[in-house]
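Please, structure for the following, as tokens.
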Amino acid sequence: MADVKSIVKNPGTTDPQRADREQELAGWDEEAGRRLAEEEGVEMTPEHWQVVHLLREYYLEHGLPESGRDLADALAEAFAEQGGRRYLYKLFPVGPVTQGMKIAGLPLPAYTEDEGFGTAL
């Protein structure tokens, strides 16, 4: 475990929780993601993988967001050039947060358990 005092004195030090999250996610690979995507009815393309890898990196850096809306906003901003939310919903029709997190092998943030979250109903 990292020394908390050294992290406080040296803000550039890696977050000790990131190492824990890396271990937590070590069992996932793209083959597992393909199987999960198949269960979700999503045919993976390079664009899908870009979103999935961004979700995994976000989780490693920041941990689980407080809400699905925070993550949806971050995704929309990251993919604004491609069309933002509209683009993301074309890739993940059930919702980029809900489907993307499942395919990425990540836990769902709070307030995403409702089937209507992240869908354009």
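The mean pLDDT is 81. The radius of gyration is 15 Å.
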